[in-house]
Amino acid sequence: MMALPAKNREYIVIALAGTPVILAALLEGLQSTDPAWDLVVEADRFTLREIVAHLADIDPVFVDRIKRTSSEFDPTLKDFDEGQAALDEDYAHSDVEDSFARFQASRAHMIKLLEDLPDQAWTRISHKDGAEWPLYAWAVQVLAHDGYHLRQVSEWVRRAQG
């Protein structure tokens, strides 16, 4: 498998490190006690409180997938049921400051892990749902997931501002 160019890896890591910064900027000025955290914009989507709790919960899952792919031979990775986690962890009543702090800490751990990887580790393979996942694909998946939720937050903020 061809290696991902160093510049591409650098940009992925920079973008991943930027997610907590962008999220904080989008939510700037919204106090943790503001009822807006619980405003339902669309029935089948997370509230802002739930988005931050979700990011705090799923980021360590991504870290584990990256870590296992980089350190184990051909690991098979388990699925993560986001909907069930939201219920089990009661995202609707989570502490936004605690959730954001957990997300920031997990993301800092992910960035350090990715920065410390040797070049050849980026093409190591794991398996999930019958498909092969090179490590770089996990990094891209996290980036895509971040983009989805950042867009969701920006749309929510735009609607809330009228």
Structural class label: mainly alpha
CATH superfamily: dinb family like domain
Please tally the β strands and state the result. 2
Number of helices: 5
**In percent, how helical is the residue content?**
55-70%
Strand content: under 5%
**Overall tally of domains:** 1
Reading the helices and strands in chain order gives: HHHHEEH
> Can you give the mean pLDDT?
93
What CATH first level would be assigned?
Mainly Alpha
- Overall spatial form: globular
Ends distance: 49 Å
Strand order in space, largest sheet? 1-2
Low-confidence stretches: none
Walk me through what this model shows.
The chain starts with 5 loop residues before the first helix and ends with a helix. β1 and β2 (131-134) form a beta hairpin. The protein contains 5 helices and 2 strands; from the N terminus they run ααααββα. The protein has one domain: dinb family like domain (Four Helix Bundle (Hemerythrin (Met), subunit A), Up-down Bundle), CATH 1.20.120.450. With 162 residues, the chain is mainly alpha-helical. The model has no long low-confidence stretch (mean pLDDT 93).
